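Hi there,

I know you've been waiting on this one. I reran it after we fixed the sequence typo, so this is the corrected version. Both the input and the resulting structure follow.
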Amino acid sequence: MSLTTNNDRTGQQLVARVFAHVHLSSQENDVEITKHKVVTIQYILTSDQQIVQETTEDDPFTFLFGVGETLPSFEAQLENKVKGDKVSFALTAEEAYGERVDEMVQEVDMEAFQGAPEGALEVGKILPMQMVDPNTHLSQTVFGTILEINTEFVKMDFNHPLAGQPLEYEVEILDVRDATPSEIDHGHVH
């Protein structure tokens, strides 16, 4: 179907208006990933050619972009992308969770686990722990992987489980939308 006939001026103007409307409509649907956008993705995360984590379209990952929910280097790869874009990229260990730090493997006195429910202490289990900064006396929650258990202490690794590993991502952008004022205020998606 042609909207112009014999090159008449009215038809050309109609084509121009229709083209402008279609072009603007597609731009409205192509919301770019920038700060305070809610981004929904599916991805495959691998390290050394082994799948570490995978999400699907039925169970995607949704996050608020630009507020520190994900790695800055991960977000840099997604910035300005739009719904439907597919991106593959690699992050070095330094760009991801950093190198492993030997001092992050510590022996925690068994007294710290008094009152822990039965079965809470198992090799390989990841536990939240409260660490107090000796200078500021502020506490923060850190996660440690149990490496060894004996009668005197629990040996724990407080490095991120992916520390020291290069990571490869295959990402598909499923949706991008503006965050609500409440989501921005709270720093996460509702």
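Quick highlight: Residues 1-27 have pLDDT under 50 and may be disordered.

Best,
R. S.
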